[in-house]
Structures
1.
Amino acid sequence: MGADQSVENIWARDDEPALAMGAGHSRGPTLEDALKLLTQREQTDLSAAFEHLVTTKGDKKKTKSKAGDDPHATFNFDAFKELTSGIIAHDISETLFKVMTKCSAKVKEGLVDKSGLFVTVALLVKGSLTNKAKLYVLIGSDGANQITTEQLHHITCSLISSALHSKQLNPRAVIWGGEDADSNARLARVFLDDATFNPEQSGGVNQFTAAELETWLANNSLVVRVFDTVFRSCFFSASDLSSDEIDSAAQVAARAMGQSVEEDEVREDPLLPTILKHHLHGPEAKDTATHSLLDATSVLFLNSHIPAEHRHLWRQLFASNLHGDSFATLMKHATGRGPTILLIEDTDNHVFGGFASGSWEVSSNFAGEPNAK
C-alpha cells in the first residue's frame, strides 16, 4: 500500500472534524469510530458477517457464540473470498482484504480482526466522497496511490457487472435480459469519457490521483451508486437493503396509480426500473421484456438520465416485432400514455432514440417540453 494511501489518510474527512485522522493525528481509525457511522441494523449485519467469517476460516474450536465476544478473533483471506464469491471479482477481493489488514489492530500478517472489517466497511458504504475516491484508487490499482486509465476502466466494468448480479438488482436485471459484457465496457468508457474527466485532455497523462477521481465521482453519481450497491451487497442482508433498492411490482404499481404507499417502501429513483407486466390486451397480454432492444446495462444508464419520478416503473407500449412496422399503430399505442422512451435500431444495428417528457399527440403542430431529450 503506497505511503500516501495510509488508512489514516483514507479516513480523513474535512466535513467531520471528529473523524479526521490525517496529518496531526497519532492514531488510525478505530472500531468505535466506525460504529459512529453505521446504523444499528448495519452493525448487526456486520457482526453476523464477522462471526461467519471467523467460523469459516477453519477454526473448528471456535463457535459462533464465542467469535463475536473474542477480542482476538480473526479471519483469513480464504474465508473472505468465500463470503464475497459471486459478488465481486477475485482481484477486488484480494485488494480489499489488504485494506482490511491495514485497518486491523496488531494481528498476525494475513489476518483481519473485527476492527479491520468494521472500519473498512464504514469507509466503503458510509464514507465521504473523498473516502470513496481513495478506496476506488486503492482497489483498482492494487494498492498504489494513482490509477491508470486502463485500471480505472477495468474496475468500473467489474463493479457494473457486480452490481447487476447483486441481491438488489439481479431479479430486475434478469427480467431485462441480464448484463452484457460489451455493454458494460461501453458504459465504463462513457463514464471515463465524461467531459470533466477525459484522459485525452490531460496532456497525455495516463494516471490519476484520488483527488482527480473525487472530481470524477462528483460528476458521475451513477458510478457512486454502483459502488455503494456492490459493497453493501457484500456485507448487508437483503432486509437491510429493502429501503434502498428492493421493492415489489405491486408497490411501485400502487404508487404509479396514485395509491398510498409507505414512504420507506419504495425508492423513487431505483437503479433499475420494475417492468409492469400484463399491460397489453388479448393475445398480446404477456411479458414483453424479451422484445426490448435494451439489456440491463443499457437500462441502468438510461434510467439514470430520465427524471427521478419516472425511474421506478416502465412498461412496453410498442415493439415492431410484436405490432408491425406501421407508424399509425405506433401512434395508437403511444398517444396519451405519458412520458416515453423511443428506441430505433437501424440496418447497421445502431440503436438510438430519445425521451419525450410528455404524451405523444396527433396534431398539425409540433409539441414538446423543454426537458425532452
2.
Amino acid sequence: DNPSSMVSFTPSCSVACRPAGNGHSQKPCWFDSSTWWTVDDHLHKDVPAVLEYVLQATGAQQLHWIGHSMGGMLAVGLLSQQGKFAGALRSVTLLASGCFGRGSWHGILAPLIRSITGCGFPAGAVCSAVGSLIGTAAALWFVEALFYMPRNMPQECARELMSGCFRFIPAGVVQQFLGSLNSQQGLTSCDGSFSYADPKVLANVHVPVLALNGSWDLFCPAVGGRRTVEMFGSTAKRFVCLGPRQGTSKRHYGHFDVISGTHAADEVYPHIIGWLQQHDAPS
C-alpha cells in the first residue's frame, strides 16, 4: 500500500518460506499418521533445510530471520537448541509470536479443541467457509476477530487470507501447541525434553531480537511475546506492543493484520525496517 516506506532498507536477497504441508511439499493426510507432523519436525527438519539452502544459494554467512507466529517460535527454538545454524542468525524479528500462549483463545478452549482434533484440524475447509461469508450479512465477525481486527483488514484481503492461506493442520502440531504453549513452561518438545524458550540458554544468547505483538492478538498474546524477548541476554532486544494505549499505533492489531492490515505498512513495517538497518552489520 505504501512502497515508499520499504525503500530505506534493501536486502541483497530475501526469501519467504512455508513449512512442510504447504506449496509443492507433501500434504498431511487425515488418515496417514506418518504425516501428522509436529512443531519439532519443523524445527529439526524444515529449519535446517531452509537455512542451508539460503546460505548456499546466496553465499552469505548470516541472515535476518523474520518469523510470524510459529515462524518466530522456531527461531527461538533454534537458538535454545544452539544447533548447527544458530550462529547464522544475524538478527531475529518475532512478529505476532512468542513461546507462551496463556490468555489466548485456544488456551481457554483447549479441552474442547483437543477433544475434536484427535486426527488433526481441517483448517482449510473451516476457514474457507468463514472467508466465503466475509462482507455479507452472515459474516462471522466474532470468528474473524480471532485472526485479525476486522476493521483493520480490507475485505478482499481478509477473504484471500481465510479462503486460501490455511491447510489441514496435523494432529501432532495441534496437540503439541495445546499441550504446552499455554502452560507456565511454554512451548516444549513433544517428549518434554527441551523448552523452545529455555531461559538458561537464552540468557547467554546475544543475537539482536525484536518482538512485535498486537494489543488484540488472541493467538499469541502480547504478554507472551514480552516474556520471550526478556529471556534473551542480548543488550539489543526490544518489545513493541502495537496499540493506541501503548502509543505505538493508532489502531489495535490482531494476529494477521500486523502483516496485511490496511495500515501495517505505515505502523508496523517501519519498526522492522529500522531494526534491520540498525543490526545489518555482521556480528
3.
Amino acid sequence: TQSTGKYLRLHDYHQKLNVTLSKLEVIVKDPNEELILETSENYTLTVTTESATLEADTVFGVMRGLETFSQLLNTYNYTLPSVKIQDYPRYKFRGFMLDTSRHYVSVSVLKLIIKAASWSKLNVFHWHIVDDPSFPYCSYTYPDLCEKGAYSPNHVYSQTDVLDIIVFAYRHGVIVIPELDTPGHTLSWGKALPGFLTFCPGHGNIGAPYGPVDPTNEEVYTVLKQLFAEVTTVFPAEFVHLGGDEVHYPCWKNNENITLWMAAHNMTGDYDALENYYEQRLLNIVNSLHKNYIVWEEVFYHHVHITPQTIVHAWKPNWKSIFQQATSAGYRCILSAGWYISRIYYGEDWQKFYQLDPRSFNATATPEQLALVLGGTVCMWGEHIDNSNVVSRFWPRASAPAERLWSPGYITDVAFMEPRIEAHRCRMVMRGYPAEPMISRGYCQFEYSWKRKHN
C-alpha cells in the first residue's frame, strides 16, 4: 500500500484470518462528480472481522476502492483478508490509446476495453479516432468526412456512438481524449475536402498522389477552426490531442505551389519552418477555443511556440532526452515509448513494460522536473487488430504499465508481480474476457470458453 511502505501479500492474510461479510459501507466526502486529471482518486478500505468500510474523497476514488475490494476476494472460498489499505495513484495521467482508423473497432468492443482499463485503474482513453486509412468519426459540421472517408457506412462512429462512449467511460472513471493528427496522417480527410491535402504524384502517402495537409491553403485553416470547434464541444475533456508526428516532407518538396509560396515567405528549403508555420496556426486556433492540448514530441523539438499548459507526448527511443529538455523548459510530459503493446514479442514481454518508469529519464532530475512527468499512455496501434483480437492483445499486458503508473515507485519486483498479473488475468477470464496468459505455464480456476461466451 502507499501508506505503509510494505507489500500487501494477500495469501499471508488469507491464511491468518478469513472474514465473511454481509455488506460494505461506502462513504464519499465530496459529492462533486467532475472528472479531470486533478480529480482525487484516493481511498481508504478497511476490512475487519465485523465490518468493511470504503472511504474516498470522490465517487471516482470509490470506484478505485471497489475494484481493490473485488480483487481482495478469495474466489476459492469467497472470503476476504482483514486489512486496511490507504491508496492513491502515483501518476495523474494513466492512459491507454487505441487506433480505430487502420482497423475499425465497434462500440461494444470499445466498452469492453474501457471496462477492463478501469479494473487496472487507468483513467484516460486516448482515442486515435482517425488517420490515413479511414475517417470513421461522423462530424456534424463536415458530414462528408466520414461519408467519404470511412471504410463503409458500417464502419463509423455516429455522434450518438461517441456520446455513448464518453458517458460509458465517465461511469468507469475514464476521461476520453480524442486525437485528430495533422498535418500528416490525413489522407482520409482529402476525399471530402478538395485542396486540403498536398498534391505530389509519386511522393504521397501509402501509394496515393497526396501527402500532408497543404499549409499554404488558407481554406485549410477555416476547416480546422470549424472542425476543432465541434470536437472540443463534443468531447468535454480538458485536453485534445493534436498529433503533429511523422510529417512527410518529400511531398511538400515536390509541389510547385508550395515551393513558390515558401520562397515568397522567406522559407526556401526550410520544411521545418513550413511545418512550424502550420502547427502555430493550428495551436492558435485551439487556444482561441480555450482548450488545452497534447502534442507528439516533434512539435516540441521543432520549437513551435506552445502554451505552458501543453503536454508533450514522447514516443521515440530518445524519450529521456525529450523529457529532460521539456521538463527543463517547464513543460509537462507523458510517456509512450516502450509501451507499444501492439508489438508482439516472443516470451513474457510484460516484464519490460513493468520495469519502465516515466520518471527514470535522469538520475539528477530536480523534484520540480519530476513533478512535471504526469504519467504515460499504453499504445495499441491498429495495423493488426480489430474486434477479433484487440481485447486479448490488450489484456492483461496493459495491466503491467498500469501498475507502474498507479503503484509506488519502490514496487518493482518482477517476481512479486508475476503471480499477481496472472491472477489478474484469471480474474478477467472469470469475468468473461479472453485475456491472454502472461506466463509460460499455468491455468485458471475458471477457463475461458468461446462457447459459453458467445452462445
4.
Amino acid sequence: MFSRNLLSKFGPKSLRRSLVQCAVEYDTGCNQIIIKTTQRENGDQRKGKTDRKGLLPIISGSLLGAAVVSQVEPEEEAIKSDPKETVRSSFPSLASLLPVVSAAEPIDSGQGDKTPPPPNKPKSRRSQFNFIADLVEETAPGLVYIEIKDTGVRDYFTGQPVTSSNGSGFVVGSDGLILTNAHVVINKPRANILVRLQDGRVFAGRVEDVDVKSDLATVRIPCKNLPEMKLGSSSDLRPGEWVVAMGSPLALSNTITTGVVSNIARPPDELGLQGRDVPEYIQTDAAITFGNSGGPLINLDGEAIGINSMKVTPGISFAIPIDYAKVFLKKSADAQKTGGGLDSSRRYIGITMITLNPQIIEELKTRIQIPQNINHGIIIYRIVLSSPADNAGLKPGDIVTHINGKPIHGSRDVYKLLEGKEDLNFTLIRDQTKFHQITVRPESPH
C-alpha cells in the first residue's frame, strides 16, 4: 500500500486520496501487476451501489503500474550486472518517474518543434553591406606605389637619394608589367624608379614604354607571379555608377576614396588641355590628388575602368578610360615583340571631335533632323586655323560617319587611321541630310 507519507511531497491531494485506496502488487516471477482496490459504500445510498468516485483509484493505479513496469526491467538488468545493487528495492523510486530537466536545457514549449537552432548566427549589417571593403580586399594586391628618387640630391644625414616625386600604378601583367601615367615616370632627370608592392617588397623599375600625348606608360620590374588587376570596359560606363579610386595621395600609400561617375565622356578641350590624344575623360567626384596619378579607378565588379589622371578642384577629378589604355597596351606589346619601342608620334589634322553616343544622336535627330539610319560617328567640335582639316574644308558641326570607307565608331578609330601614311577621305553629313566627301592630307610630325 502506498501511504500518505510517501506521497505527501510528490502528489496533489486528490491523487493521494485515490492511491490510498489502491494497492499495487508486482510479481517478479511472472512480471504481472495485481491491482487491488477497496470500495467504500456510501452510507447515504442504497446497498449494492458503490461510490461514483470508485473508478478513480483504479485508473490512477493502472497508470502508476504501467509506469512501474517500464522502469523495473532496466533496473533488474542493472542489478544483475552489479551485485552490490541488491539492496535496491524491486520497486522503483518515485523520483525516477518524474521528468528531469537540466539547468541550462531549454524546456519544450509543448509545440513539438524539434528543429535545431542554426549553426551560424545571422550576418550583421557590417558584414552584409560593406561592399566597398570587400572590393578593396579583392583588388588591393594589384596596386603598387611608385617612388622617384633623385640620385643627384642626397639626404644630408643618411646619404640616400631624396624622393623627388611619387605616384601610383597597378599590375597588368603577372610577369612584372605595371601601368601608370607618363607624367609619373618621365621627365625626371637622374631619376631612380622604385616600385613597392602590397606585401612590402621593393623593386627597381625601368620605363618600358611611354606615350606622352595619351599620358600613359608601362614600367617593368624583375618579379614574377604578381596578382593582376582585372581590366573592365569603359564603353558601357554609366553616370552615377559607384567607383573606387585607389592610390597613394601625398605619399600616403594604399589610400582608398569612393565616389560616383559624374560624366563618362568629358572632352579634353573643356579642361583646357592641349596636345592630348585622349579623346575623352571620365569625370568622378572620388578624391584624386597628387600621388593618386596612375592608380586604378575601379567599378563594383573589381575591374579597372580608368586610370586616375588629374584633379581640377575638390569633387571634380578625371581618369583616362581603360579602353584607350587597352589600345596602348596592345600596341606596346606588339612593338616589344618586333624589338622596338612604341612610336607615339601621330600625324596631325587639327580637329577636336566628340564621339556620338545614343543620347547625342537622338538629340541631333530632333534638332537638325539627320538621317534616321545614323547610329555611329563623330562630330567635329573645333578646327584649328590653317590646319590640314581647315585647309581641306572641314567645318565645326560636320558629322563624320566613314573615313576611307571604314565606319567610324569613335575618336579612337580616327587616331588609328592617323598612324598610317595614306590620305584620309572623310564621308560626312552637312546641311542636315546632305552627304559630302572631303579628302584631308595629314601633316607628318617630323
